[in-house]
UniProtKB/TrEMBL annotation:
This is 4-aminobutyrate---pyruvate transaminase. Transmembrane segments: none annotated. Belongs to the class-III pyridoxal-phosphate-dependent aminotransferase family. GO terms for molecular function: adenosylmethionine-8-amino-7-oxononanoate transaminase activity; pyridoxal phosphate binding. GO terms for biological process: biotin biosynthetic process; gamma-aminobutyric acid metabolic process. Keywords: Aminotransferase, Pyridoxal phosphate, Pyruvate, Transferase. PROSITE patterns: AA_TRANSFER_CLASS_3. The keyword Transferase applies. The keyword Cytoplasm does not apply.
Length: 451
């Protein structure tokens, strides 16, 4: 119907990550409400939200405590700024809380609104720090192919995915990409996982040597890559990478936008992999996405030159209107309290086991699945178009799976031929079983058509 929400969405709403033809062809899914791990569309159809929105609604939908925290803060002080010396209680409390629960000793928390903005802030801080230290040539940042760090100009440059660069004239100068630690795809014949991890570190070392160690400021990575396809690094990877960085006085930035707040079975992905970041970026599950908020945590090594030397180069000229927004900060504090009180990090570790076991059994049963991977409550099925009976373009099998999953009431996400799962931290046995049952039905459909 011409006046339906779907028609008006197509007519007026320019979406991220699609084009007009696809938008028209697939048609919008209009979600109306949510409760717990489920959402309902405008036809009343129920779905299990197996991606937590965008890897982010940790405490699930309809959490009244967050509604109350936001409402009370809206009534008391709906907005105040945090430029220069202005402040307010929720921002102070949240900064203190984040420093106190950080995986390694951190000095300061700096607030922004999105993961992209937070990573852009990191790039600017790194540049500013190098200038403050009197090392203006030490500004390059090394990221990884298939890493995802956002879409603003600098963070899209850090992102290592072609469609975030293509036709945008990105990456900007001084941002480089090294080997993606995905053993299943990148590992060579006869190479063990450990040898592959060593090769990744050797590639990084060679890149630093080729560029000149005095020109490289930092390395950035997600503990587990999310949007690049749920890439769990091989054993020993992070130790070997950190050993290389230590040799050359290069800072380590952990992008915990997805991993933070329990996703990998510990509060931080850095704990799961024994990563010791100098800078840590968090967003998404910090508020369960009930309000946009992100934070950059800086240790003394990263922070001190920015402040102590800034007299020479002026005031820190960076900051956004919404930084440390009181409503977002109040929601984050309540959300973190819920995660702590309900033991949701331990629940993620616990429920991750049947989720991964269920997906693994399906991967073994269905020929079209190449690999199951995951850790904690984040996992993926890798569809292998090479095993399909028909010739399939890259991503076509993944898209077919996505459509079948939606039909069977499961919202996951296909990243090319990778199907990503990242359900809310509150999930129970029944929820896991519902996801697995839906995935099995979808795999049957897709196998019947293409297997
Ligand atoms: N970093 C990581 C690891 C992410 O997964 C994302 C978003 O998916 C971002 C950064 C960018 O965050 P945002 O979409 O809030 O800008």
């Amino acid at each position: 119907a011409p006046n339906s929400p779907e028609a008006r969405d197509i007519a007026y709403h320019l979406h991220s990550y699609t084009n007009a033809e696809l938008h028209q062809e697939v048609g919008p899914t209009v979600i109306e409400r949510g409760a717990g791990i489920h959402v309902w569309d405008n036809t009343g159809k129920r779905y299990v939200e197996a991606l937590s929105g965008l890897w982010s609604v940790g405490v699930g939908f309809g959490e009244e405590r967050l509604v109350k925290a936001a409402t009370e803060q809206m009534q008391k002080l709906p907005y105040y700024q945090t430029f220069a010396h202005r402040s307010h209680g929720p921002a102070i409390d949240l900064a203190e809380k984040l420093v106190s629960i950080a995986p390694v000793p951190m000095s300061k928390a700096y607030f922004t609104n999105s993961g992209s903005e937070a990573n852009d802030t990191v790039v600017k801080f790194l540049w500013y720090r190098s200038n403050a230290l009197g090392k203006p040539e030490k500004k390059k940042i090394i990221s990884r192919f298939r890493g995802y760090h956002g879409v603003t100009v600098a963070s899209a440059s850090l992102t290592g995915l072609p469609y975030n660069h293509r036709s945008f004239d990105l990456p900007i100068n001084g941002i480089l990409h090294t080997t993606c630690p995905h053993y299943w795809k990148e590992g060579r014949d006869g190479e063990s996982e450990e040898e592959f991890a060593s090769r990744c570190a050797a590639d990084l070392d060679a890149m630093i040597q080729a560029e000149g160690p005095d020109t490289v400021a930092a390395f950035i990575g997600e503990p587990v890559m999310g949007a690049g396809g749920v890439v769990v690094p091989p054993k020993g990877y992070w130790q070997k990478i950190q050993a290389v960085l230590a040799k050359y006085d290069i800072l380590l930035v952990a992008d915990e936008v997805i991993c933070g707040f329990g996703r990998t079975g510990n509060l931080w992905g850095s704990q799961t992999f024994d990563i010791k970041p100098d800078i840590l970026v968090t967003s998404k599950q910090i508020t369960s996405s009930y309000f946009p908020l992100s934070a950059v945590l800086l240790n003394e090594r990263a922070y001190a030159p920015i402040q102590d030397e800034s007299g020479r180069i002026g005031t820190l000229g960076h900051g956004v209107t919404g930084a440390g927004h009181p409503v977002g900060a109040a929601v984050a504090l309540e959300n973190i309290a819920i995660i702590e009180e309900r033991g949701l990090v331990a629940n993620a570790a616990r429920q991750g086991e049947p989720l991964r076991a269920g997906l693994k059994a399906l991967a073994d049963e269905f020929e079209l699945v190449g690999e199951m991977r995951g850790i904690g409550l984040i996992a993926a099925l890798e569809m292998d178009p090479g095993r399909a009976k028909d010739e399939m373009a890259v991503g076509a099998l993944g898209t077919a799976m996505n459509v079948a999953l939606m039909r069977h009431g499961v919202i996951a996400r296909n990243l090319g031929d990778t199907i990503a799962f990242c359900p809310p931290l509150i999930i129970d046995d029944e929820g896991v079983a519902e996801i697995i049952a839906g995935v099995e039905k979808a795999l049957k459909d897709v196998s019947a058509a293409h297997g």
